[in-house]
Amino acid sequence: MAKTPLQRSYLNWDGVLGSRAVLGILGWVLFIGGWWLAANAELAPQRLFPGPDQVFVSLYELLTEKSFALDIWASVKRILLSFLIAILIALPLGLIMGSYPKVDRTLGPLAGAFRYLPAPAFIPLLLMWLGTGEEQKIALLVIGVLFFLIIMISDTTRQVPKVYTETARTLGLNSAQILWSVIFRYSLPGYVDVFRQMLAVSWTYLVIAEIVASTDGIGAMMMRAKRFVHVDEIMAGIFVIGMLGLAFDALFKALHRGAFTYLSRT
Amino acid sequence: MTSALPEYSGPGLKVAGVNKTYPLNSGQHLLALSDINFELQKNQIGVLIGPSGCGKSTLLRLIAGLESLSQGEIQVAGKAISGPGVDRGMVFQDYSSFPWLTVEENVAFGPVHRGEALSLREGVVEHFIRAVKLAGFEKAYPHQLSGGMQQRVAIARSLVSNPGLLLMDEPFGALDPETRWQMQSLLLEVVKKERTTVLMVSHDIEEALYLADVVFFMGTRPGRILEVIHPNFERQSDSRDAILDVAEYRTLEKAIRQMMRAQSLACA
User: Which of B5, B71, B64, B73 is nearest to B38 (CA)?
Assistant: First the structure.
């Protein structure tokens, strides 16, 4: 008796998953099909608006003949290094701000205000301070996500139910232990989610960082392509950035699922 | 450790002249608890009962050391408290099992973080998991447990630190009636066996009379103790319903219900 509703919900869930994948693919097919049609309708010169087939061919050529893989690797390195630096600054700050209201009242308004300063506005400053090298690009990428990260991490930290910290206090834990073993540990899945969302923002700043005095990276390749009106290569660059963003998103989701099994309802 | 000292023979808990005030925005102070005085003997179960807003949870939190006194003194086993301490365990109404830890790890949480590896080796954790009837669930995570089981984890986690006083803030308030009954019997069994002094906040008269050696009835505005009742009828942990037929139980239940109503009316 009790098995019937269980089985039914299980089957339904399966069905939803199946149709969700099908619908997701359908969206892509419609998009690429529409793009192909638009490109072949010759509304604009092929040179300025190439179809998906041309873009994929030039992506293949970029990878095989123009060492595009090195550019991609340069960009991925920048993203990962800058994001790691941003996390190393934002995590301790956000954890302390979320745990101690007085610190939050002191630093919160500051970080909140900085969040509204557009990162590209810092470029002239960074060029003067750091020159045109790698540091300048990394710094821009760090600034782009740092203040959002601080605010979101402190928000996540504040969500820890009081009952956990108070239980820990009555069990004789000191403040440092509560901060690490309860507040940080409880918030960890939330932090990973914040990282996933903010890494997407990091990718959106990549091209801006690589437009300025850059010789390698996906953004640099796109600027080179612009000089020679290789719209297909620019589009290939956009496509690769999108794919990499999706891949990292999936990676974080898998990490979340794998590391925090205790959150899943059985 | 303390075997060299003569055993303490005074009350398990003594609350003397306790006031609690909260500052208001107007610059005045709100008197939440007024001149609270009571004692709870060792190995007894005390229940704080009263209408909502009478400050019974606040009083419990003061004893736990989670909030500071405005005036007066609280002694646990003869020693004045300041802040939370391992001599007092606390079980909240909200489920408090750490979701990332198994039942076993939850129960061992206190000793592990206090660096008391010894008590773990002696099988204390296993002992208390068995005592609250969670044997077989050692490796389960809280989300796999029912509400009643989660509260049993919380009780075992408190008792494993061997607190002289176990504080409970409406621990079974979120459970369905049937589970609540089972939990009350289990609690009675465990704390009598472990010789733990218990102070519980409840708004359930039946629960109070079933569990309590002494009931402290509190009134509102300001929060204060109006009546101390010593129900002294037989009760068995194995037949929860038996007390419903006891004449004295029915008399007391009615009396407390009337006091509750009078207090609620005075507030309204």
Answer: B73
